Amino acid sequence: MKAIGFTKCLPVDDAEALLDLDIPAPLAPEGHDMLVEIHAVSVNPVDTKRRRSEEPKDGPRILGFDAAGVVRAVGPLCTLFQAGDEIFYAGVVTRPGSNAEFQLVDERIVGRKPHSLSFAEAAAMPLTAITAWEGLHDRLGLREGDGEGQALLVVGGAGGVGSMVIQIARQRTALTVIATASRPETAAWCRDLGAHHIVDHREDIPAQLKALGVKPRYVFSTNTTARNWDQIVASVAPQGAVVLIESQAPIDARQLMPKSVSLHWELMFTRPMFGTPDMIEQHHLLDAVADLVDHGRLRSTMTRNLGPMTAARLRQAHALVESGTMIGKVVLEGIA
Fold first, then answer.
1. In 179, 255, 314, 319, which residue has its Cα 20 to 30 A from 38's Cα atom?
2. Contact assessment for residue 201 and residue 181, using Cβ atoms and an 8 Å cutoff
3. Which tens digits make up the pLDDT trace of 154-206?
4. Considering the chain, what is the average pLDDT of its residues?
5. Which CATH number fits domain 2-125+276-335: 3.30.470.20, 1.10.8.50, 3.90.180.10, 3.40.50.1370?
6. Which residue from 1, 4, 7, 25 is spatially nearest to 104, judged by alpha carbons?
7. What is the signed CA dihedral for 325, 214, 236, 158, rounded to 10 degrees?
8. Where are the domains of the chain?
9. How far apart are CA 132 and CA 260, in angstroms?
């Protein structure tokens, strides 16, 4: 089958950073696995980080986590889907990815594709929606309707995860949502998604929050955590909570102790990587996301569609993500 992968770690501007490949197709699905025909994928920072830093050891590495496609066959333990179903999901880092014609994926981390979205629009959503949902509900402990009179600070509001945090927080909680953005176009994007207030993360965040009269009980940091750590510590309210999805450099969690602030990590790959007993919760939450989309309460964050997937176009998508200036998500359809 056709696939796109890499054989050595190279900068994105190298023509061999990603290669058009012909590799064996997956075997018939076993257990809870399904064989999926890939119709669209999107690129996330995790793709670019692994391409830059993880040298393949046993042949080419196929990346790609977000995907939307059609089930072609199901394993003997599958009960949630059948051949012909349209689905979307985010895969797992420990298995071959979605940058290929076909992929095996465990049905327990798969949701039905929203009826109202194209495959491309749907492919933009799973990884970021799962991250946002788990971060808000499983890590910060927020339940639907919670947060009256309290505020959430979203650091990196215009990125893929931030865009979903804003939307899910607005639709499922009563929190006042403050997003950070540093350009007019990213600020406008965050407002359009529902952010009540915008602060500039290149300026003094605590001072801007004070001017708004807001002290966030919760902070959701989606990028540049180490750079913003002192401002996050100063911004969060006493007895509040912070959730992080990355930290490119060390942070000192002891700084949170005087305020008795709790610190949480969110990695949406944890459930499938470890086969946790509640792994099926990702299926349930993706179905809930699909329902919210089909009822007009959430929207796809696709902002760039580069067309059919080739190695050259996938390198372009990686370059866009690595630029740090992306608004929303970049998507590719099928494989050329």
1. 319
2. yes
3. 999 999 999 999 999 999 999 999 999 999 999 999 999 999 999 999 999 99
4. 97
5. 3.90.180.10
6. 25
7. -10
8. 2-125+276-335, 128-265
9. 24
- Look-up of token digits 């050595």: 8
Residue 8 tokens read as 């050595």
CATH code of domain 128-265: 3.40.50.720
Q: Reduced to 3 states, what is the DSSP secondary structure of residue 189?
A: helix
Copy the structure tokens of residue 304.
Answer: 């760039």
Hunting for tokens 């390198």 — which residue is that?
315
Alpha-carbon torsion, ordered 289, 293, 296, 301, to 10 deg: 110
Tokens for 331?
Answer: 């998507």
Give the total residue count for the chain: 336
Q: What is the reported pLDDT for 251?
A: 95
| Token pair listed for 169 | 């927080």
Question: Whose CA is closest to 99, among 306, 289, 326?
Answer: 306
Tell me: pLDDT of 336 over 90: no
The residue type of 111 is G
- Strands 218-221, 241-244: parallel, antiparallel or unpaired by DSSP? parallel
Q: What is the pLDDT of residues 56-66, one digit of tens each?
A: 988 899 999 99
